[in-house]
Amino acid sequence: MDLKALTYFIETARRGNFSRAAATLGVTQSTISKMIRLIEDEIGSPLLDRDRRPAQLTDIGRIVYARGQEILAAHAGLMRDVARAQALDLGQLRLGLPPMINRLFTSVLKEYRERYPRIEVVLHEDTGQEVERQIANGQLDLGFSLMPIATGLALHAQRVARFRILAIGHPDLMRTLPPNPQVRHLQGRPLVLTSDDFALARLLDRQFEAAGITPYTIARSSQWDWTLSMAQAGMGIALLPEPFIDHPESQGLQTRPLGPPDLSWDVALLSPVAWSRLGHAAQAWVDLCEARIGGPWPRTEANSPS
To answer: Which CATH number is 112's domain given?
Structure first.
């Protein structure tokens, strides 16, 4: 049912007169009559008894009049909410963050909440693999994982940050390690690593295999800060991305970048839709991340620099 025709009918019914309705709406009487006829033809029943003065509603007309007001009110509310969402005054952002990645975005999240207090941010913390699955299934608006991303998933991914992987350990354990150690130099050395649920663990396992070594793993933890604590206790050498060394548990430890040179911890932004189709709340998050973190974040034509 055409909303304009419904508006014309309700105003006519309210006024009880075609000419007064036409004057209020700024159209001709014939226009109003034609629009009301459209509804009557669609319903298959007259809405007004035109032989009476003023025109009276028929039984069907009274139903359409009552329900039509509800429809127009709902439509007006819809358009107000759309306008608020476009102005970032209303909405929701469902964001997926693996445990090791979330600390990179604490300050961004704080600023986002300060800038857009009416946007509800729903955080889903899970492994990178699970975040990838939820993005592909449309359960999240945006998410993060570590590259390489699982193949065969219906999602869009772009690397947005790259960090060195560091060997971190007590000076006694690091003393005999070369200044620029390669993965092969870890053969036989005690290691404290993250658990297999972490993409970092999978990345390092591939590197160990490529170097032809079997790691001497003392312990694996699902908590990266506990891994750092074990390194500080002298249990073994931890292998962690560069952002994690700025932590109280790293005090007194020595750090060295781990080779080969292309070995890095690459954070990817994930979306279930093309970057050009990001919602307003999601695009605002991407823009803020780019401003605060830097890096090659996706850009749409709407927010590309001229």
So the answer is: 3.40.190.10
